[in-house]
Amino acid sequence: MKFLERLLNNIDKTIKEGPFKIFHPMFGAFNTMLITPGHATSTGPHIRDSIDMKRFMGIVIFALVPSILVGSYNVGLQAGVEGLFAAFMFGFLKLLPIIVVTYAVGLGWEMIFGHINGHDIHEGFLVTGILLPLTLPPTIPLWQVAVAVSFGTVIGKEVFGGTGMNLLNPALTARAFLFFTYPGNISGDSVWVAQDGFTGATPLAAVASSTGSAVDTLNAAGFTLNKMFFGFNPGSIGETSTIAILIGAVILLITGVASWRIMLATVVGAYGMALIVQFLGADLAGGMRTLPAHYHLVMGGFMFGTVFMTTDPVSAAGTNIGKWIYGILIGVMVILIRAFNPAYPEGMMLAILFGNVFSPLIDHFVVKANIKRRLNYGK
Amino acid sequence: MGVFKLKKGYDIPLQGSAVRRIEKVLKITAIAVQPIDFRGMRPGMKVEIGDTVKRGSVLFVDKQRPDIVFRSPASGTVREIVRGERRVIQRVIIDVDADSSESFENFSKAQIGALATDQAKKILLNSGLWPTLRQRPFSRIADLDKAPKSIFISAVDSAPLQAETDMLLEGREQDFQLGIDFLAKLTDGKIHLSVSAKTEAFFSKVEGVEMHHFSGPHPAGNVGVQIHHIDRIQASDLVWYISPRHVAQIGNFLIEGEYPGSKTYALTGSELTNRHYVKATEGALISELVADPISTSTQRVISGNVLTGRQSEAVGFYDDMITVIPEPKGRRFMGWLQLGFNANSFWPMFLSKLTPKKKLAPDTDMNGEERAFVSTGEYEKLVPMDVLPVHLCKAVLVEDIELMEQLGIYEVAPEDFALCSYICPSKIEFGDIIEQGIIAMEKEG
């Protein structure tokens, strides 16, 4: 232990002062990940909670593991690979390069900005680097991933001043970038199955393009509610399995990492809006409007976005009441987009980005209400 | 009488509370009086190195308000005047010898009852005990020329390992009552005394106060929290607060006509084996109070509690306890992956959460490095006031005076946010930020 500590201290010094100082933020992250920084408090509180950002973000990654496992398996399953392990390995080998590229490119940018701003690499990127690949189709070209990560990190985060200052969720910013620049590689029917020549529409796309009853359409395509709940249908790698995502949600909620208010509010908002759409459905034409409300919760990126994206503490609303409003807003938006925008059956990404943009405003009004309450005290 | 059951807050389960037994420390060879105990006060020295002083002699005065004097709690010779950065006087060290006291006029209960406000004020200023009165906003020594709306006394012990009020005041019920009688002369408003289930019995016979009951986790005992619930202050309001021990000290001064230089301390912290209460001279050096050997390289000696105390050689003016805890033993392998059976944490991310009653002995490791703010909503669970901690701190950081005012900077003190700093995964110093805000407000006038 002492040996390791001395070794790391020596390397730290060499890198800090030598020609490789650009790598110092990277090394700093590695160094403190291997053994704790070990700084003592200088002022009160003299003792501090054992929690740090590494633990905090580590828990999020841990919560993503079920989605990674089931998602990988499903990629293999959709491609027609036989056998549980073989299917998993097939999918995992599709996912791994995407994760590697995301980390390599993203950490590269983090390192440059860490060097410029003189800080270590922040742990938040470790989560972004897994979230983004899980929201992509397995066939995504790796160079596009690299471009998207660059956009998400630099424009989505660093131009605002880095981690903690960003307005938008960096992973979703990167995904939105891909969606609008290379729509052919991230939407449509041909990108979801990682086997040349095979196509498969996502359940949402199937419903959106139908004119009759949504449930009939889904059943005809083999997408039962059960199947979609377990995630054995085409879709982005990590988003299909509702059960895996819910396991992650339980981990996030027990540990207090993510806000239950936001998750609950998003579900309530979406379910409520979907009921309204369903109620109006009789008078409206088109598949999406006949979709039962609870189907929305297991389809597309809704649950993945609700559990892992809306709850990003930086881009979400910060006040408790604000979190309710923010979640409901996103929930309502996602159904509105799904039901009333024929060009775009999946609404979650845009709904969350929309919520991100509004969250400072929501907080502003909550803070104003607090001020008003304070001024009225005693009157 | 109000009953306040606070839900928000957190009690850190710590080892090392003091047993309820008072011992007398026989040998005090030196004391330190520390001007830095008094926030924002610049001292004008009245003694030099080598001067002999009696118990009750003036050591220094407040430069801006020379009517406020600070007196020596013991008689002896001034050994050293320690200066820190920019020659700010840190402490005055006095070698203690045989006790001799300055004498002051003494008063009976009836005489105290007949005092006029101006007279009472003069007596308290002259006694050297005026600094026991502090005010909100800004939590500094009370202003001379503005009368307070009311006076608050907190006898609720909620801070980690906090000295128990009834132990500190043992046998001093009469002094306490006289102190209350006297304080009543200083305000037209009420005197609010807050008690908990534990201290209620001790104060049951006190007259002339409005009693309040507080229960709940720390910071329920913080006077700022109590003011917020009992009688909130607005920008133009001014309230005073004082600790129960100081009330008794004022009472004792009035009846005896001598400066009361003795004080009871609690010796706490996981690093001490002899943990109890001691009766000794105010400003005593900690090394003379504790029986255990102490090594400052492996142990941290704190005057006050672990949340708001200060590293110090002598016990501070407002502190009733010392806490000794371990310094970090070095860097730990993959600390962020630990299962954490013994990890102290508010967050349910460690296995220690399964044994919430188990008392721990954390060291002074920061357990991380400073990062960007993450508004998880947990900070709000620790501040039992209608105040938004994150937004108030952000207002301070962007130096928006008006917003700070609107978000409640007048109501708060750094101590009210100590738990926020404690649980912060980004290791943000909430207390320091609030302090910065208070200084900015004071400058603004």
Entry summary:
With 379 residues, chain A is mainly α.
Topology:
The complex is a heterodimer of chains A (379) and B (445).
Chain A lengths: L1 H16 L6 H11 L18 H26 L5 H34 L6 H11 L7 H13 L15 H12 L21 H7 L4 H8 L3 H6 L11 H13 L5 H21 L12 H6 L3 H8 L10 H21 L7 H29 L3
Chain B lengths: L1 E4 L16 E3 L5 E4 L9 E3 L6 E2 L4 E5 L6 E3 L4 E8 L5 E8 L12 H5 L3 H11 L6 E3 L3 E2 L9 E5 L9 H4 L4 H11 L7 E5 L14 E6 L7 H8 L8 E4 L1 H13 L5 E7 L8 E5 L4 H4 L9 E5 L6 E2 L9 E6 L62 H9 L3 H6 L11 H6 L6 H15 L1
Parallel strand pairs in B: 1-14, 2-17, 12-13, 12-15, 13-14, 16-20
Antiparallel strand pairs in B: 3-9, 4-6, 5-8, 6-7, 8-9, 10-11, 10-15, 16-17, 18-19, 18-20
Helix pairs in contact in B: 4-6, 8-11
What would you note in describing this structure?
The complex is a heterodimer of chains A (379) and B (445). Helices cover 64% and strands 0% of the residues of chain A. Chain A is mainly α. Chain A is globular and about 70 Å long. The model of chain A has no long low-confidence stretch (mean pLDDT 88). With 445 residues, chain B is of the alpha/beta class. Chain B folds into 2 domains: 1-25 and 101-279 and 287-328, no CATH class; 366-444, no CATH class. Chain B has helices at residues 109-113, 117-127, 165-168, 173-183, 223-230, 244-256, 286-289, 389-397, 401-406, 418-423, 430-444, and strands spanning 2-5, 22-24, 30-33, 43-45, 52-53, 58-62, 69-71, 76-83, 89-96, 134-136, 140-141, 151-155, 191-195, 210-215, 239-242, 262-268, 277-281, 299-303, 310-311, 321-326. In chain B, strand 18 (299-303) and strand 19 form a beta hairpin. In chain B, helix 4 packs across helix 6 and helix 8 (389-397) packs across helix 11 (430-444). Chain B is globular. The model of chain B has no long low-confidence stretch (mean pLDDT 92). Classes of the chains: A mainly alpha (379), B alpha/beta (445). At the A-B interface, helix 1, helix 2, helix 3 and helix 16 of A face strand 19 and helix 10 of B.
